[in-house]
Amino acid sequence: MSSQLFAISFDAHRPELLAHFWAGVLGLQRADEGDDVTLLSGNDAGYRLGFRPSPAQKTAQNRLHFDLTSSSPEEQQETVARALDLGARHADVGQEPDASHVVLADPEGNEFCVIEPGNAFLAGCGFIGALACDGSQAVGYFWSQALGWPLVWDQDQETAIQSPNGGTKITWGGPPLMPDPGKDLHFDLVPDDDQQAEVERLLSLGAKRLDSARGGDGAVLLADPDGNEFRVLTRR
Q1: Which PANTHER family match (predicted)?
Q2: Would the pTM count as exceeding 0.85?
Q3: CATH code, domain carrying 35
């Protein structure tokens, strides 16, 4: 038993508008299913970007954010300019004034980085080079087992995993853990087989069950060992 990463989903006050922003920045196509607003990531890792309606208010820096790659200084500047034109703003998350990467926030305040060219760790990962997460070594191990993605980095309590197909890396920076931001990004999983059996497997790996009624559409709502909410959807 295992799960596929179906989507990396944003909590969104205005899902349509936030999807429009990210589609414009990343050049992605819509792939809605029913009432779900989604974009095809076009990434070798095979996930989508989701935008789920949520009344949650953002109270701190996101625990999860995207790192977008650049092949040249000109491309980095073009990505930043395109994002600003679509409604992004510059954000201060404590980076040095002379930092080579550019930190922005989308129209709902979700931070993301536009990485300078020449980053060897993200080479070949695609435009969405990484989903950078605040989290423990243990949660990196959990997600490696949950998704069947091998560890590609495990050093000094920092971990990273990547799909066997390549594409976006998911990284965790180690302790200390930042506070819950209230409004963030989350994983949506699809089980390979029976949903309940997969839920039990994830619980055995260290997940915790939350109020399933909040999952919606038959989804089961769980939390990983660091307390980050995620959904196990019904089979598609």
Answers
A1: CONSERVED PROTEIN, HYPOTHETICAL FUSION PROTEIN
A2: yes
A3: 3.10.180.10
